[in-house]
């Protein structure tokens, strides 16, 4: 028997209710005001209809009297609390009906509009609502809006209707009076040419005020005076917070200096949505899984991603802007093959895209990309150069197979099934999705990505553990005489030199050991004034000697810097920084084969020990320590494999985005790193190292211990910066970002110790501390990122050594130390960093600290 689609409704029941929040203005004491309540019951009326018996009918009069009894003389703190009480009455008196909807209007609540209200649908007697909808009816303002000359001279009426859907449980009651004023002011101050632009701006204002990442707003803006023979012209838009956290599509089309490219939020505050306003949003959002296990796996995936959004892609003769825009990427994983185990390991990742292609057209496009990268026909689940699959598309369910074939899971050749029928059993698909959209509800399952992954990890299994990987490209680029026509539309993708691994820390695999390795970064300052080794390695011969010794003693990467960041260091012009850094990189690379992996043995047949060392040095990974995009770009082209930016792409100014120049710098630095496909170390800083040490704004996180404020600041400030860099058109690949908490930068002694002793919490999969007024804490945006920690010879270690024993009984009176006298103190800090799970430690004395890393890894690895 089919389920009932019958309903019983009571429309516009007039009540008088007292609210503590007043109406148009706050009222003290509260006074009664009109409220209009409508009910809708899902109720099978066939029995009542067949028997015409009142015993099977709903008594409308009883319902109305029950609602009037609810009101009584009680003063309700908000409209939401009144709606909760109405739902509670339904749950106790009408438990037999499958669902119930209540819509409540306060017609005298608004100063500029007709009504403020709420609508809640409650499924079943024991279930809680999954969401609620608040609405503003007919908010009227006046705007300069339109393209005709007379429309630019006088304001005209504009009517706005808004609904705001937010997930349950609610964070806090709606401050409707303040939000109405914001909406009205937005309309009154607007000077847009189009209704579309005004509707989008109103949506931005609403979401900014609501401050709830789950919220969705629908805004209808109408012009009653637009058409003589019509009541109005109207535009309706639907937006969520993510729509305003990504940059304009125009800025993503390889623009080098457009100010519309997304910039990071100020380091000390939440992001300003006005900085993220998006134009020309493509209408659909899809998740695409990528995998490769033949050839240069990393380069194959990067090539596929660039082809995804190449302008003028050959899609049925399309020659215009990209039809697909990548707006987010996951971390990257190396995984053992499933189903067919006798083949190389896979590299797996995923991306989120926006597109105007329908699902079948998108699938066809992905297959064209696979062919362009070089995929050939293979057996099912066999090796492939690259593989692209649509995992989700909005929230649709689609199966192109004949009805009779839909019970099987493996007959997918040439067909499209969304969601993928094996998504719930594949860790290599769920983990990348968890990185980007953990709360996404997979259609047909009714469960989120997080729930599915957690359930899968609770199952006993002998499968080898997945682990994250960071590929390092090889530079300088090899000469390319000719490129296939399909690849001519994208920038060349660099080949891979080597890759690093780090363990999965979020929702870890049950009972499976996670591989863990701590890499050593050697510090090579080619400067005359660095705090530790200024003027020691600032010539090419001395720099080469240091690089040789570092690689010999176990350094995995050499970090070359030409601008001292110590307090009160002299300003260095970009040209001077360039002439310090680039020639050293060129000298290192010119000594031998540039494709030698520093982790591999010296190639056989080497003519002499000295030549062997030079060859190994020539193949070492190199990082360039700079916050200038010009220096970073030239250094990578000269042979660097990584960018180490103490400003997290924001440049030397703080707070970030203090000027248009800062925003443009962020845009350009992000584009350079993206185009070069190099890993980027993004460090927490607040400008000059010795300044801006006040973390009072984060005192709420300190608790009774007095600790935690600095850790929370790093999570919040650096998290927002990295989120702006990774998400949105033109974003960095998530798998190429390394987090540096910024020891020694804008932190007191106790702040540095706090960060070092609990560094693991910075990237832990646990929420941020809830701020006052937040009913639910926010997600830590740094979850899962690898960390670089650089304590080497820093002044906070010297401050510790200078302190005498507190009670004088230990016999230690404290002593002053030069930077180069702090290597044993550094060893203690490095051991702590290893224990805290740092993927990389940055040191000066590689020989001593390599021993520390080895022993520390044996203890805590």
Structural class: alpha/beta
- Looking at how many chains there are and whether they match, the oligomeric state comes to single chain
Largest sheet: 9 strands, mixed
The rounded distance between the terminal residues' Cα atoms is 60 Å
Tally the helices: what do you get?
Answer: 20
For the residues shown, what is the average pLDDT?
82
In the sheet with the most strands, the strands line up as 3-1-2-4-5-6-7-8-9
Q: What coarse outline follows from CA principal-axis ratios?
A: globular
Helix content: 25-40%
Question: What does the radius of gyration come to?
Answer: 31 Å
* CATH class (first level) name of the largest domain: Alpha Beta
Low-pLDDT segments: 246-280, 592-602
Structure commentary:
The protein has 861 residues and is α/β, with parallel strands linked by helices. It has three domains: 7-240, GTP cyclohydrolase I, C-terminal domain/NADPH-dependent 7-cyano-7-deazaguanine reductase, N-terminal domain (GTP Cyclohydrolase I, domain 2, 2-Layer Sandwich), CATH 3.30.1130.10; 245-281 and 646-789, no CATH class; 286-503, Alpha-Beta Plaits (2-Layer Sandwich), CATH 3.30.70. The strands form five sheets. A nine-stranded mixed sheet has the order 3-1-2-4-5-6-7-8-9. An eight-stranded parallel sheet has the order 26-25-24-23-22-21-28-27. The longest helix has 18 residues, at 709-726. The radius of gyration is 31 Å and the shape is globular. It starts with 6 loop residues before the first strand and ends with a helix. Mean pLDDT is 82; it is low at 246-280 and 592-602.
């Amino acid at each position: 028997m089919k389920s009932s689609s019958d309903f019983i409704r009571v429309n516009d029941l007039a009540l008088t209710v007292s609210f503590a929040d007043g109406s148009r203005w706050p009222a003290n004491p509260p006074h009664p005001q009109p409220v209009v309540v409508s009910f809708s019951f899902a109720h099978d009326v066939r029995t009542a209809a067949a028997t015409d018996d009142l015993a099977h009918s709903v008594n409308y009069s009883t319902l109305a009297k029950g609602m009037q009894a609810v009101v009584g003389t009680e003063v309700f703190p908000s409209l939401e609390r009144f709606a909760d009480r109405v739902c509670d009455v339904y749950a106790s008196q009408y438990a037999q009906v499958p669902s119930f909807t209540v819509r409540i209007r306060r017609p005298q609540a608004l100063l500029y509009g007709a009504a403020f209200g709420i609508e809640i649908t409650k499924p079943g007697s024991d279930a809680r609502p999954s969401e609620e909808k608040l609405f503003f009816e007919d908010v009227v303002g006046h705007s300069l809006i339109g393209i005709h000359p007379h429309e630019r001279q006088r304001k005209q009426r504009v009517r706005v209707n808004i609904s705001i859907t937010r997930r349950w449980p609610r964070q806090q009651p709606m401050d409707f009076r303040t939000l109405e004023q914001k909406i009205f002011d937005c309309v009154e101050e607007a000077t847009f040419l189009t209704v579309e632009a005004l509707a989008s701006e109103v949506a931005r204002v609403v979401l900014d005020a609501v401050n709830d990442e789950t919220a969705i707003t629908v805004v209808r803006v109408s012009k009653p005076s637009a058409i003589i023979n019509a009541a109005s012209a109207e535009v309706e838009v639907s937006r969520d917070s993510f729509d305003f956290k990504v940059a304009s599509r125009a800025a993503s089309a390889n623009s080098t200096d457009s100010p519309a490219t997304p910039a990071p939020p100020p380091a000390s505050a939440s992001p300003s949505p006005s900085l993220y306003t998006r134009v020309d949003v493509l209408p659909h959002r899809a998740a695409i899984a990528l995998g490769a296990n033949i050839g240069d796996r990393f380069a194959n995936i990067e090539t596929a991603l660039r082809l995804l959004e190449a302008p003028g892609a050959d899609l049925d003769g399309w020659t215009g802007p990209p039809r697909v825009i990548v707006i987010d990427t996951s971390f990257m994983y190396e995984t053992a093959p499933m189903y067919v185990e006798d083949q190389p390991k896979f590299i797996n990742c995923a991306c989120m895209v926006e597109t105007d292609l329908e699902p079948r057209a998108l699938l066809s496009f992905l297959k064209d990309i696979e062919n362009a990268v070089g995929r050939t026909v293979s057996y099912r689940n066999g090796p492939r150069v690259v593989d692209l699959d649509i995992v989700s598309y909005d929230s649709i369910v689609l199966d192109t197979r004949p009805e009779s074939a839909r019970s099987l899971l493996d007959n997918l050749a040439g067909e499209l099934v969304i969601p993928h029928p094996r998504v719930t059993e594949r860790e290599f698909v769920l983990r990348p999705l968890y990185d980007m959209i953990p709360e996404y509800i997979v259609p047909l399952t009714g469960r989120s990505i997080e729930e599915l992954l957690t359930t899968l990890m609770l199952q006993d299994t002998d499968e080898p553990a997945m682990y994250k990987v960071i590929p390092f490209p090889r530079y300088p680029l090899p000469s390319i005489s000719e490129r296939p026509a399909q690849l001519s539309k994208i920038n060349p993708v660099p080949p891979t030199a080597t890759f690093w691994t780090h363990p999965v820390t979020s929702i870890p695999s049950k009972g499976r050991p996670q591989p863990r390795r701590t890499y050593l970064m050697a510090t090579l300052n080619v400067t005359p004034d660095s705090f530790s080794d200024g003027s020691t390695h600032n010539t090419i011969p001395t720099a080469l000697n240091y690089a040789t010794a570092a690689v010999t003693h176990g350094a995995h990467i050499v970090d070359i810097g030409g601008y001292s960041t110590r307090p009160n260091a002299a300003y260095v012009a970009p040209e001077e920084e360039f002439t310090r850094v680039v020639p050293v990189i060129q000298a290192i690379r010119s000594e031998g084969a540039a494709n030698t992996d520093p982790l591999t043995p010296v190639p056989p047949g080497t003519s002499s020990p000295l030549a062997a060392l030079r060859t190994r040095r020539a193949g070492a990974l190199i990082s360039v320590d700079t916050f200038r995009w010009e220096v970073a770009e030239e250094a990578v082209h000269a042979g660097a494999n990584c960018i180490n930016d103490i400003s997290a792409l924001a440049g030397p100014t703080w707070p970030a985005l203090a000027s248009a120049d800062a925003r443009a710098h962020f845009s350009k630095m992000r584009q350079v790193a993206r185009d070069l496909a190099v890993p980027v170390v993004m460090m927490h800083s607040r400008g000059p190292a010795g300044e801006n040490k006040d973390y009072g704004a984060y005192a709420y996180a300190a608790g009774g211990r007095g600790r935690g404020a600095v850790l929370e600041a790093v999570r919040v400030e650096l998290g927002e910066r990295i989120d702006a860099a990774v998400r949105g058109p033109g974003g960095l690949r998530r798998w190429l970002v390394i987090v540096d908490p910024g020891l020694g930068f804008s932190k007191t002694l106790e702040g540095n110790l706090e960060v070092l002793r609990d560094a693991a919490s910075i990237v832990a999969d646990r929420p941020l501390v809830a701020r006052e007024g937040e009913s639910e804490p926010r997600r830590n945006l740094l979850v899962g990122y690898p960390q670089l920690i650089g304590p080497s010879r820093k002044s906070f270690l010297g401050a510790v050594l200078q302190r005498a024993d507190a009670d004088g009984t230990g016999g230690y009176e404290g002593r002053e130390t030069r930077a180069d006298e702090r290597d044993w103190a550094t060893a203690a800090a490095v051991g702590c960093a290893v224990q805290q799970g740092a993927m990389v430690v940055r040191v000066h004395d590689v020989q001593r600290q390599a021993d520390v890393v080895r022993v520390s890894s044996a203890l805590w690895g």
